[in-house]
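Possible race condition, two jobs.
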Amino acid sequence: MGTLRSVVDRHASVEERQAALRQIYTQVLERQPYAHERRILAKAEQDFLKDKIGVRRFLMELARSEVYLNSFYHRVSNLKFIEWCFKHFLGRAPMDQNEVREYCNILMHKGAEKCIAAILDSEEYRKEFGCFTVPYPREHRYYASPKVFLESGILNHEHFGQRGWIVPTLYWHELGLDCTAGVCRHPEADEILDPPISAESEALQEKLLELLDAFETSTQSASEAFASLSPSQREALRRVIH
C-alpha cells in the first residue's frame, strides 16, 4: 500500500516525534484533532513529545480518551467498533467471526478500554509494531483467505463512516446489504435502514452473531438466507442494523 513506516525510539528528535504524532492521528482518528480535542490530549501529547511515553502508551492514552470514544464507540454498534479498532491498531480487518466474537465478549463484559488494551497487548501487535512503530495499513504477502485480503483492502481504504456505523465490512455483503453510500439497504427492502443511532443491547449483538453464524454454515445464498428468516428474526436483524 506504500505506507511510510514511522519508528520513534529513544533517539528520535522532537521533529520526528511531531511527524509521528500526525501519523498516529491520521491512522487512529482518520484526521487531525480539532482545537478543543487537542486540549483534551495535551498532557499525553507533551509526554510523547518529551519522550516520557512511547508510541504504544500514547496509543492507549488516545484510545481511552473521549476524543476517540466519541468518534468510534459511543455512537456505533459494538461490532463496528471492534472492526475500527482492528483497522486503527492492527492495520487490518478482522479475520473471521471467531475473532470478532472473542473481542466482542471482552467489550461487552469488560468495556471498551479493556478491549483496546487486549489488542495493544496482543502478540500480533507486539510482533508487527512493538513499542516504537506507529501502526499502519498492512499489506501481507499471504492472507488467511481471499475474504481477509478483500476486507482489509476495503476497510483500510474507505473514508470514515463511508459504509455506515453499524454493520462491519465482514458482514454487510454476507447479509445481502448494500452499505456503500454510508447507509444500509437490502435489495428486497423498500426502506433505507439508517435511523438515528442508539446504543446496542447485548441481546441484539448476540442475535446478530447467531444469524451470521447461521448464514455462514448455510448452503443458501445471502439473499435466500435473508428471505428464509422469520418475521421476528428479520425484525431483530433490522433493530441491530438500526
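Job #2 (started ~2 s after job #1):
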Amino acid sequence: MKKITDSVYSVGAVDWDRRLFDSLIPLPDGTTYNAYLVHGSEKTALLDTVDLAFADMFLASLEEVSRIDYVISHHAEQDHSGAIPLVLSRFPEAKIVVTAKAKGLLMDLMRLPEDAFIVVADGDSISLGEKTLTFIHTPWVHWPETMVSYLVEDKILFSCDFFGSHIASSDLFVTDQCRVHEAAKRYFAEIMLPFRIIIAKNMDKLADYDIHMIAPSHGQIYDQPGWIMDSYAEWVSALPKNLVALPFVSMHGSTRRMVDHLGSALSKRDVGVELFNLAVTDIGKLAMSLVDAGSIVLGAPTVLAGPHPLAAHAAFLANALRPKARFLSIIGSYGWGGKTVEILAGMIPNLKVEVLEPVLCKGLPKKDTLAALDGLADSIATKHRESGFGI
C-alpha cells in the first residue's frame, strides 16, 4: 500500500515479467494492475482490483483494511476485475458500483450475483463522508461499459484504461515523461485508435472537471496531467500528419528494393516515412505510426498467388484499428502472377481512404518500376500538401 494523499492509497500490483497482453499485444516494459483505496469519514471505496494471477499480492496489501463498502468497477475486463470475487469473500458487505452494461458483463465473466451490484448513471455520485466520488460514463475506452471516477475534494480522476500505459515501475508517479509518452501512445494505438471519435467526445465531457491528478489502471500516476490530456487531444484529432507508414515484407529482396526507393523518394519530397519490416517489427510500433500517418503504403510480395501472410496480417490490423489515414497504396514484386492487390483491397473495408495507383513489378524492379515509384511519391506529396497535413 502506497500513500497518494491523506485519504487515497495505491494497492495494486506490478507485473515485471508480462510480455504479451490478450495473446496479441507486445508489452516490452511489463505493466501494472493499479487499484486504489479511498477513505472517507464514513465509508471506504476500493477502485478496481487486479489480474487474478496477482490476487495474493493484492489481498496482502489490504490486510490492514477493516472494511470496504464499495468496489468501484470501472471496466469489466479481467485484468481489472479478476480479484473482485475474492474481495467480496473477504468483505461480504461491499457492493460493486458499475454501469448497467458492466453489471451484465461482470455477471457473465465473474459469475457474480445480481444483488451484489449498485448501478450508477452518468454523473451520479456517492458520498464516503467528506469525500465524494462522481461517476462519468466513458463508453468505448475501450469496451462499451467503461466509466471513470472523479474524487471531487482531491480533484483526482481515476481513469481506468483512459490515459493508461503499460510500464512496470516501482515509481508511483511519472518520473520520465518521454518514456511514458511513448508507452501511452502505444497503449492508445493498440486498443483505443478504433474508437478515437467516441474518445474525443469523452474527453469533451472531462473538460467540465478540474483535474489535478490522473490515476490510471495501468502505468504511473500523472501528477501533472495536462501534457497527457494534450497528447490525447492530438491523437484523436481528425487531421493526420505528413507521414507515410510503410509496413512491408520481402522474400528475396525485390520488394525491399522497391520499399527503399520509395522511402528515399518520399524523403526527397519532404514527406516523412516510417518503414516496418514485418518479419521482425514490433507490431505495437506500427500501430503507433498508424495514429499519425496520412498515408499507408503496404509492401507485399506475391506468394501462392496472393499477398504474403505477414502483409495480410498488417492489412487486417490496419482495418481493425481504423486509423485516420486518407490515402493508401500497395507496392510489391511477383514471380508469375496472382491477385495480391485484389485480396488486400478486400481486407480493408473499414478504411475510408483514396487508393492510389499500386506499383507491382515482375521480378526485380527495373527503370520503369522505379519511375512509377517516383510517380507514387509525387502523388502522395501532392495529396498531403493539398490536404493540409502537418509535419
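Residues 333 and 361 are 5 Å apart (CA to CA).
Logs attached separately.
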